Amino acid sequence: MMRTLLLDVNYFPVKIISWQKAITLLVTNRAEMIDEYSDKIIRSVSLSLKLPKILRLYQTHKLSYSVRFTRLNVFHRDNFQCQYCSIRLPACELTFDHVVPVSKKGETTWENVVTCCKPCNTKKGPKTLQESRMKLLKTPRKPSWSIELCLRLKEDDPLEWWDFFPKKLAS
Ligand SMILES: [Zn+2]
After folding, report:
1. Is residue 171 part of a domain?
2. Domain of 104: which CATH number?
3. pTM
4. Is residue 91 in a domain?
5. Contact at 8 Å (CB) between 71 and 41?
């Protein structure tokens, strides 16, 4: 499945989109082609286009720089590591914990939710840190933009994309 890297007007990577979405952006004149898959051509009655490999939006993308609060992004921020006992596990064996429990008005936010293994989650239960005598590895914060959190690369994505990834953020 071919994917397209979408850049904003300043050539900053916004996200990775499906080629179908990329074609829509192109034909509605909202983006320009920066690079294409030279051997993949889309044909319809009215047009023939090479599949976009990299597109650049004509306008600034408003929502692109904030990391979305999702279960998987919390795991990525915490390096798939239980924030209490520091064990690293695959996503299917992890859960998350409200540092201040929901029953004590703890919110579901970046600052109050951490990655947790199931035994630690059971051990902590609806208790606060003090009550459970458990310690966090680090204070949870909202993460800033990163390739891992915002783009989710796959192994067969084109190497040309790396030319557009900010060097200091690449890891
Ligand atoms: Zn644990």
Report:
1. no
2. 1.10.30.50
3. 0.71
4. yes
5. no
Distance 90 CA to ligand 1 centre (A): 13
Task: Indicate if 76 and 42 belong to the same structural domain.
Answer: no
For ligand 1, the distance from its centroid to the CA atom of residue 122, given in whole angstroms, is 9
Give residue 170's pLDDT. 44
Cα-to-centroid distance, 94 and ligand 1 (Å): 9
pLDDT digits (tens, 9 = 90+) for 135-154: 999 999 999 888 878 888 88
Interval between CA 98 and ligand 1 midpoint (Å): 14
Q: How many domains does the chain have?
A: 2
Q: With contact defined as beta carbons under 8 Å apart, do 171 and 148 qualify?
A: yes
- Domain span holding position 89: 71-132
CA 155–ligand 1 middle distance (angstroms)? 30
Spell 52-82 as b/e; 16+ CB within 10 A means b.
bbbbbbeeeeeebeebeeeeebbbbbbebbb
Low-confidence ranges of the chain (pLDDT < 70): 61-65, 167-171
